[in-house]
Amino acid sequence: MAELVAAELRRRIIRGELSEGEALSSETELMSRFGVSRPTLREAYRVLESERLIVIRRGANGGARVQPPRREVAARYAGFILEYQGASVKDVYEARAALEVPSVGRLALRRSAADLAALTEALDRYDDEYDPSRSIRLHGEFHQLVVRLAGNETLTLLSEMVHHIIETANVTLQPDSGPSAERARRDTGRVHRKLVELIRERDARAAEELWHRHLGEAEGYVLGDDAATSVLDLLG
C-alpha cells in the first residue's frame, strides 16, 4: 500500500501539480485521503525521500516538502553504475563527443540572434576569469550551453549527466595551475571563439570538425597516456 501512496504523490510531483518547496498535506489528512495508517504513510515518505522527491524537515514548521527531480542526482547514480561496471574515463569522454559534436552542427543550422548573444556572453565571462578552478567550471558551462541551445531536451539531459560525471572525475585528474594549465586556458578560449564564428556563419560541418578535435585534445590533456586504462573513480 505504501508503494501506491508513493506512486500517487510521485505522479503529482512529476506533473507539476505540487510545486518546489510546497508542503504536503498533514499526515492526518493524507492518512484519511488514502485510507492508510501512519506507518504506511511514513513508509511512502521514505520511498519518496530516497528518490529525492521530498525532504523531511523537523521542528515546529517541519513536515514533508516537495523538491523536483534533479539532474545531478540522476548523474550521480549513473556514475556509480559506470564505476561499478569498470567503465574507463575514456568511455565517458567518447560519450560526451557523441552527444556534443552533432549538437554543435544542429546549433549552427538553427541558431538565432539570442543564441549568439548567449554564446558571446559566455565567451566574455571565460576570457575575464583567471582563477584556474573557476575557468574550468566556465569551460564546462560553455559546453553545456552549446548543447542546450541546440534545442533537444533529451540530449541536454544526457549531456548534463555526462558533464557531471566528467567534472567529478576531473577533480583528481585535471591540473588546474601552472604554465600548462594557463596555456590550455588560452587555447580553449580561442577554440570556443572560433566555434562561435562558425555557428554565426552557419557552417555546421566545420563546427562539428572543430569540436571533435577540441574534445579529443581535451581528453588527451586530462588523461595523457592513461586515456584507455584510467578507470572511472568518483568516490576518491
From TrEMBL:
Gene3D superfamilies: GntR ligand-binding domain-like, Winged helix-like DNA-binding domain superfamily/Winged helix DNA-binding domain. CDD domains: WHTH_GntR. Residues 1-69 form the HTH gntR-type domain. Coiled coil: none annotated. GO terms for molecular function: DNA binding; DNA-binding transcription factor activity. PROSITE patterns: HTH_GNTR (PS50949). The keyword Signal does not apply. SMART domains: FCD, HTH_GNTR. SUPFAM superfamilies: GntR ligand-binding domain-like (SSF48008), Winged helix' DNA-binding domain (SSF46785). This is GntR family transcriptional regulator.
